[in-house]
Structure formats: structure tokens, C-alpha cells
Design brief:
By secondary structure, the chain is of the alpha/beta class. Helix content is 47%, strand content 16%. Helix 5 crosses helix 7. The structure holds D-glutamic acid.
């Protein structure tokens, strides 16, 4: 069977926060990142559109040789993953796999809270899908989950405003809205791969006893565990530490912004879906 890199997909730059953790944990593999920056954000788009865009990206990563694709996007994981796994994969290629970021995050969510009150910051699409509440409810019954949609955060982050004074209003607004609905929350999951860019602002405005949890590290650990449990897939991943980056936008824009998300320079290539 064909060998190839691990594909990592996001609507834009957010997935780079996950890719960075994965590369750090498993630098030996090859990775192919695809950001659909020309059509980001996905967070306010309908189920049908997110599914259609995500399927196009998955097909492209398969065509480029990836045996395994990670949807490093909560919105795509919430709205498209299950349909792709159940309906499209058997027809496209039953030997390839697509995994998301929500399951590994919900697995740890219930273990991090001390009092059983968990908050989720995510896009409107992820919150309205109720995927986090349903999955945490199954794995950790008894944990109270309160979701807060933060529709302004991704546009601000994609426009490099994550550190500006202008972002403060929207950071405080969504924190206040979440905590007014459950003041006992002691753990907040950043259920959008863009949000780690707002961590310092979130730390500034969140009460200090609340634990803020970016998901990249947990997704990386879970992928490592998956590859350990599936040697037939692990053997199909090429090794060489090569990283390629594709964007549906102009590569120069991508290169500039990717540095902030990934902490190092990249040379992206343009791709159409
Ligand atoms: N980074 C994506 C997520 O994890 C979505 C951002 C967007 O396109 O709205 O949900």
C-alpha cells in the first residue's frame, strides 16, 4: 500500500497550533498541512458547506498521498468528520483514515476539572452541533458542560488582532457570558484551534483559579497512541521530518501569518480545491 505524509487540515491557520504539538512529539514523520485560508472562517458556515469544503480538502490530501488525515479544526470535526468516516471513506478508500480533534479533547476534559464544571469556548458551528456536550456526557457522566460560541475571535485572530487592545472587549464579553451561565466553572477547553493565540488575553481576563486548556498537546498524544495501536497505519507514514504547507490563499500571506502560529518560518505552496 502507498506510503505518504500525515495530512493535517484546518480552515486556516488554527490547525498549525495542533501541527506544532504533533511535530514536536513526533518529528520523525513527514507532514502535509492544508489551510483553506481563502474560505476561512468556517465557524459561521452551514453544516452542508463545512462538509463540502472539508471533503474537498480530505480528497486533495488523499490525492497527494496522505494515508491518514487529521482534521485539526473543531468545526470540521463537529460538522463533517462522522459523515466522511461513515459515508465517504468506504467509497473513496477504505484503507485510509480521517481523525478529528474533538474526541481526544473530550477524553481528557472530564479528568481536568476538580469540581465537574467545564466550559467550552468554540465557534458557533461547534457549539450549535453540541458535539462537546454529547461526547463529554458519554465519557464523563456527571460533568456539567457549558458551551460559549465566540464568533468574533477567529476573524480577529486571522486578521492578526489577537494581541491588540481592540480584542479585549470581545475576550471579556465571551468570558462574562460563559461565567454568567455557570459561575462554578473551573476548567475551560479552548475548543477551536485558533484560540491558543488568545491565551495571554484569556489569562488576563479570566479569574485566575480557572484552568484554560488548549487542545494541541492532547491531540498529539492521542495521535501517537493511535499510531502505536495501528502499526498497519504507522508503517504507511513516510519518515524524514519533511513538512510541506499548502494554502488556498496567497502563499506570501500564509508564510507571514504561519510564523506566528507555528513559531518558525515556512514556505507555503498555493493549492486550489
Ligand atoms: N480553527 C477552527 C476550529 O478549530 C475553525 C475556525 C473557523 O474557521 O471558524 O474550529
Amino acid at each position: 500500500m502507498d506510503k505518504g505524509p500525515i495530512g493535517v487540515f484546518d480552515s486556516g491557520y488554527g490547525g498549525l497550533t495542533v501541527l506544532g504539538e504533533i511535530q514536536q512529539l513526533m518529528p520523525e514523520y513527514d507532514y502535509l498541512y492544508l489551510g483553506d485560508n481563502a474560505r476561512a472562517p468556517y465557524g459561521t458556515r452551514s453544516f452542508e458547506v463545512v462538509y463540502e469544503f472539508t471533503l474537498q480538502a480530505v480528497r486533495r490530501l488523499f490525492e497527494m498521498g496522505c494515508p491518514l488525515v487529521i482534521l485539526a479544526c473543531n468545526t470540521a470535526s463537529a460538522k463533517a468528520l462522522r459523515t466522511i468516516q461513515q459515508c465517504d471513506l468506504p467509497e473513496i478508500d477504505p484503507n485510509r483514515r480521517v481523525l478529528g480533534v474533538i474526541r481526544p479533547t473530550t477524553e481528557i476534559a472530564g479528568t481536568l476539572t476538580r469540581n465537574g464544571h467545564v466550559g467550552i469556548f468554540a465557534t458557533q458551528g461547534t457549539i450549535l452541533s453540541h458535539t462537546y456536550d454529547i461526547e463529554i456526557g458519554k465519557l464523563h457522566p456527571g460533568v456539567r458542560v457549558t458551551g460559549q460560541a465566540c464568533p468574533m475571535w477567529v476573524p480577529l485572530i486571522e486578521n492578526k488582532e489577537y494581541d491588540s487592545p481592540g480584542v479585549d472587549y470581545f475576550v471579556k464579553k465571551y468570558i462574562d457570558q460563559l461565567l454568567s451561565r455557570d459561575p462554578d466553572i473551573d476548567t475551560i477547553i479552548l475548543g477551536c484551534t485558533h484560540y491558543p493565540l488568545l491565551l495571554s488575553k484569556l489569562r488576563q481576563f479570566c479569574p485566575s483559579h480557572i484552568r484554560l486548556v488548549p487542545q494541541g498537546e492532547y491531540v498529539a498524544n492521542s495521535l501517537k497512541d493511535y499510531l502505536h495501536r495501528h502499526p498497519e497505519m504507522e508503517q504507511r507514514i513516510t519518515r524524514g521530518g519533511n513538512n510541506r504547507y499548502l494554502t488556498t490563499e496567497h502563499p506570501l500571506n500564509f508564510n507571514e501569518n504561519a510564523t506566528v502560529f507555528l513559531g518558525r518560518n515556512v514556505q507555503a505552496e498555493h493549492v486550489t480545491l
